Amino acid sequence: MVIAVDGPAASGKGTIARAVAERFGLPHMDTGLLYRAVALNLLQMGSELDSEFAATRACDISQIDFADPELKSETVGGIASRISVYPSVRAALLERQRGFAGQPGGGVLDGRDVGTVIAPDAEVKLFVTATAEVRAERRLAELQQRGMNAHYEDVLADIRARDERDEGRAAAPLRRAEDAHLLDTSEMSVDEAVAEAVRLVEGILKRG
Ligand code: DC
């Protein structure tokens, strides 16, 4: 079974995808980490950050350390959002994601274009969202928990800029697949959002 979980930055899609994967005993891939790994590689190579050519070269990573905490930084996330507009970067990362979705038994993938491009035949598609303000509050709390000094207005502006890039790009923009179930977590706690996602998946599987 393949479960696609898409949505904007800080919508809670990662937490939901991990919990759903655990609940149904499936492997999980955070596809955003691939874009972040390319962004980090680009930074470490000291290459230009706005060059499609350099970004495509930076996709040549044989082994990604998904546990590297650097991948989670705001700087790397911002660069990931910028390089993800390049069609050649998206093409270079496609096979890794399709390979993961196509493994025996399937898996859960979260990202922006899993239900639309990576795994359009996924058995279950969730589109997780929340208002920009709620997402900014969550991201701020997460940053403060990591001991970082951040301001709500800056975080909100960053979330809005990222939404605009993710939704506005020509190549595989962020959008809800027609057959994706909308899960608006604006007024839900993490536990409520996870419970609702599990309920949705169970309902879809029952209808089979
Ligand atoms: O989910 P995230 O914040 O870790 O993703 C970082 C950036 O990577 C995001 O702003 C856009 C890009 N991305 C993408 O274009 N397609 C995906 N499937 C996942 C992430």
User: How many domains comprise the coordinates?
Assistant: 1
CATH architecture annotation name: 3-Layer(aba) Sandwich
Small molecules (ligands, ions, cofactors) in the structure:
2'-deoxycytidine-5'-monophosphate
The percentage of residues in β strands lies in: 5-15%
What string gives the helices and strands in order? EHEHHHHEHEHHEH
Give the overall shape, derived from the CA principal axes.
globular
Cα-atom Rg, whole angstroms? Answer: 17 Å
Instruction: Count helical runs.
Output: 9
CATH topology: Rossmann fold
Structural class: alpha/beta
The averaged pLDDT comes out at: 94
Classified in CATH, the superfamily is P-loop containing nucleotide triphosphate hydrolases
- The rounded distance between the terminal residues' Cα atoms is 11 Å
Q: Quick one: CATH class?
A: Alpha Beta
- Note poorly predicted spans: none
Q: Provide the helix percentage.
A: 40-55%
